[in-house]
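Deliverable D5.2: sample structural annotation.
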Amino acid sequence: MDLKPIVPQLIAEGSEPQKSQRRASFSAMKALKLRSLSMSSHISSSSETDLPSPIMGRRRTRTLTKNRTFDTLKEDLIRKPSKSSTEDNTERGSTSTRPTSPSGTGSRCASISSDSLTVIKSGHLQPEASLLRSKKQFLVLTPLALIKFRTRSAAAERFPQISILGGSVDTLSPVDSTSSLKDMGASEKLHVPLERIVSVFNNEGTRPSFGIEVWWNEAKGTAFTCLQLDFSLPEDRDEWLKQIRHAIKIRAKSILEDPTPPNIELELKQMLETPYGQAQVAQMEIYPVVPRRPCMKPKESSGEIKKGWRENLSFYIVITKDFCFLAQFTKSSTGQKFKPSLVRFGLVTLSKVNLILNDERFDLVFRLPFDKPKKLELASRHHRNISSKLYKADMYLKPAWPLWIRREVFFIDGEAPQVPLPNGEDYGGFRTTLQAFIEGYCSAPVNWTVKWKNVRHAPQFCLLTPKEQSKYTKYQLLAVFRALRFNDYFKSLSFYDIDFSSLSGAVDNTARLESTVWISRTGKRSLTRAEFELVENSSVLFQEVVALLLGSESIRHIDLTNVLGGVPTTSLENGHSTPSPTSRVCEVVPPVVLLWKSLQTRCNSINLNGNPLGVPDIAGLSRVLQNRPDFLRTFSVSRCHLDEDALVLLWEGLHDQRSTLEILDVSRNSGRIEAAKASETLNDASKLRCLNLAYAMKGNLDGPLFRPWSTTSSFEPWHLEELDLSGWKINFDTLCGIMKFVELDESHNLRRLVLINCGLSGDMATGILCRLGAGRDMHLLLSENPLELVSTDWIDLIHGNEAPKMLHLDMVLFQHESNFNRLLKALTHNKTIEFLSMVGTGPPDRASSKTSELLSRFFELNDTLRFLDFSGYDGKLEDSHLGWGLTGAFGGLKHNNTLRQLRVRNHDIGAAEDLSELCRVLASNKGLAMFDCQQNSLNHHQFAKLVHALNFNHQIISFPLSDVDRQYAIQKEERLFRQHQEQPAKTFQARMLKSAEGRLEGLLKWVEEFWESEVKKVQEILERNRNNLANYEIEFEREYLEAWEDESLPSWLVPKSKTNDKGKETLFTTP
């Protein structure tokens, strides 16, 4: 009878052997792919039988190695798929393993309901190498189990379908009972239920055969067991591997089993929930896996892989919100499991996923920056779910990152959809991504805020200085940088006064697997190959600045003030050190120059204040500014240690940006530029909003420095907001230009006019005050000018309310006490000045009784001032301090309820000895909220009196303390003690010397402890007042709070808004 071999019904439903096989195609990237590191994983769904495992079909050199070097590891990180594939055809040319079925009636007799008795495939195994075992063992695959028999005849006894004659599988007919499979007896060597199989993959050992490893778990999942199956031909092995996997897949769908035993899941959840929180384990997913190489740290340092190292063990991969864990359970001899061992990896540190969908083997490569990669070589029949979960987690944690970056980690077939970016409180995904990187890098939280008000490009991300450490670590900085990478939510970035030194000079290119950012998020901007290779081989800080400014297409401004304030030095012959500008390079400048030169960033505003710039930096900046004119908006290089040559070279580039510059700051460098050369540029800089040339100019000038106004109709007046010409002796023409400008309506935006040490006489100050008018909302700084010369009419203008809202008269040298007294009278009656700074300004000698009385009346009667800094200057002689005169005048403050902030440093108040008036003010004043009397030579008794008085005040929320005062009190006690010991009446002085030193040491220790106890009292008082809800209603201007300089101010103290600006500013600590 002619039997036509057909495919069993179960297999026919699972696959289509007659269909033409198509290899999954890879869509080409739209942009040039520069990195050669590719991935070997598919995320898209495809038939499991479409492609056999290329890994299985590739012959491998079977050698034993003890150690794997990093170079070998790096070459092995990516498993490339084989070019050959095996056709999905069940009629393969294997005479010993080909399943057959009879015609017509016999096929219809086989019922799917009898899966336990259906034979999907059967065949001989290769005999083991032992001479005692010459018979071939026999393998049978059913829809429920994989069964290994000692002989073919034993298998035929249990499954009559299997013919004893020939080399083929006979009729597939049912038997009486499914229980027969459970009672196989001695003929059955091994029975493996399909639902318990963890993974089936090619044998990676050194045995000279074509083998398969079948791993399955026990009922409670406490240990995995391995079954080694060897075949004579690779075709037989591949066919069996395909059929076993397909049967497992069908079985899993039919029973809908949970991949993880409930007891394992419960134990892992309880173990992770305590240290990581409920949020981490809320969406936890667990899958059993088989490590192909040891993943835990070996207890012995031999480095060799011991035989049977996976015995009595079970392994599970756990994926939480931010982490990936590998858990190892150990089964004891009594059958109980021990507490699992865990290896933790941050999901953001996942660098490569090496995966082929038709092979259950896969590799996960994790890497922390500056560390070597850690590779997990695993296998699991859940490899698709694991890969999909990791991919979704990557999209959730880094929603702003583009698809081409994910292609470097996961191989994506086709165009995967881009995740919609969350806005609102997540700031375009920034908060989620930052928390993931902080957790993944095992770092402490960072402080940051988002500003909407008083910034030119809002919203602005601001990284704040750390509170519990001196500077951020390199991992904290990298977490912030990479969370900001590709973020298009923010329009400007501020790293003001953040120390980048932990990343300075750091290189991470040898072991790095992560992609170098060479293209923007949308692909509109990219680097050339030469530029890419430059970035690829540069320092980490260089690469991160490029990633920030190139990856995001929304950044217009970046503030890098004082991020690299340390100055490299070279030793001179005289033993001193000085900066070396010829060799010095600031690491944040070259990447900016590169992107400006290539036109690949939208950032056209930068602050580099406080960073030492060398000749290479200045040369690069000047060259790019000359070659690309009229693009720069903001440029600040204050306190950058520029000498005269460097400043002249830089100015040549700035000259070509004069028509677009809005903010220019080259102040307080060692070099100065000629006023005539500066004038050539400034006369055409009509768009300037802020100009700071403090201590940056020299020389005389014919005509005005700039002309912000004109009588011609075609001229558009300037809209200056800030102007600082300090340190240059201003000529009459420039002063006239300024006075003419402040009369125009366009000058109403002028917020700050700084003319410190400009040689202004009294008549010049009078002219400025006349034109500013009464109560203008701006800062006017006339400090360090000889304002007594020529005229003092400006004092009368203050008396008549012809003064701005904020006035600075620091270090004004009065030669006549009468003029100082006139100023006190004028300030007493003034109704426009709310902010007044008179640091170092006072009478030529110690205050007389008349001056003290006028000062007391000023404190008592002025009801306009909100902020007053009346400190002395610590560089002046003690005779110039107000001292006792100021102490007596404090009595006028007892009934002043309008003054909110008062600073009176460096007045030697302690010399007055009697602080009763000051104590009464502290105890009874109802207006003061901030009081600063540091550096006033107080002893520990006087300090205790102030603290006692402060305890009666329930409104003061700021009382700054200085370590200088504590040191002064200790040194004063030591000085008094030694003076007492040096009196000639002392007898037996030499004998008592040792005892005196001991008493002195005890006295100083007591003073220090007493001082510290009083400091704690102050902190408790301030905490009490800050928790007083009544104080929450106190409002301060932003400028007043910034001038106060107290970092301990409470977070609820929000500056009063002058306008109805959009948004809000909130401080954050992440995570």
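Annotation notes: DSSP finds 29 helices and 36 strands in the chain. The longest helix spans residues 989-1026.
The annotation will be released with the project's public dataset once the embargo ends.
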